[in-house]
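On clarity, I found the account of how folds are encoded harder to follow than it need be. An entry of this sort, consisting of the sequence and the corresponding backbone structure tokens, reads as follows:
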Amino acid sequence: MASENKKTKDNKLPNPKNSKRVFIKFFLITVASLLAIVAIGAASFYRNISPPELPTTQPITVAEPPSSSSSDDDDDEYVPAIILTAPERFSSSERKELFFTFLIVGLNEGKNANTVMVASYDGVNHEANLISIPRDSLINVNRNNRKLSNAFLNGMVIGGGTEGGIAQVQREVMSVIGFVPDFYVIFNYDAFKEVIDAVGGVEIYVPFHMRYDDPWQDLHIDIRPGLQLMDGHTALLFARFREANPGFRPINDYRRIENQQTVVNAVLGNLLRPANILRIPEFIEIFNNNVYTNLMFDDMLWFASQYTSIRGVDAVNFHTMPTDGSSGTPMWYEFLYMPGIVQLVNETINPFIDDINAGDLDIIR
């Protein structure tokens, strides 16, 4: 059993998940601010913005590997599987009023999901919650790499491109929260870089020479000390810096988070300048080029208009999905903690009146 082999990672810091949560929070602040700017600029054209309509609840189709009992003569390597988007006992009439859920996925260059989050917005109580799901979570699927981070790439390869990737992430997230979120937002980090370039760069003080080369990642950082105006590429290198070449000064995760906050705060300062409202078409183009979503433009405007209703980001409650140890080497799977997850989901993101229960999840334990 998995629980018999649990080990603890040798982390240098007491709680690295807090660092990840802080970066996610500041990234979301930036995105929300960008949407708010778009909403303000479009207000004169959209006088009456209605709440979004929920997507029609339809089963999702994912590509599943054949079972071990399948014949070797089968022509199809993978077969389609139809999966419900919520437990059978739930229907649209059993939804909470003005309650919306979102699947947020951040992809790296290789199409692995470095960031997987589920968020909710309660339009009645004006409260937002966000749960970060560890990318290394062990998922009950039939493939060699069973981490959640591999879902999008695997779905793309066997399921027909982006739609297959999204469907596979939806299926795997549903297995650990009990339902498929209403809306999905799939983004890459080029969006952040292009926003920085669009606002004319950011002015950052660099305390010391940052130098690091990792040919395996094709990552090369060489940033001189002093006050400088950074473009998007340099700002992201500054935010990523932690390890250093021999003879240069490294930093810990907490210091890296401080650097990320410095970048995000500088971006916010530029985004909120009145002059940037004139650049709304450019921001929309950046969003369209780097984000794949089933949210319509009017939907985004309505959610952006709610930004002030939740009193900025203070009403956004951030959570990390409870885990119960790691498998250790070589894969370092994170085991998810079923009782804690059921409680957290029902207290935060469950869009239904009735509770999700353990039988609605498919978690290896």
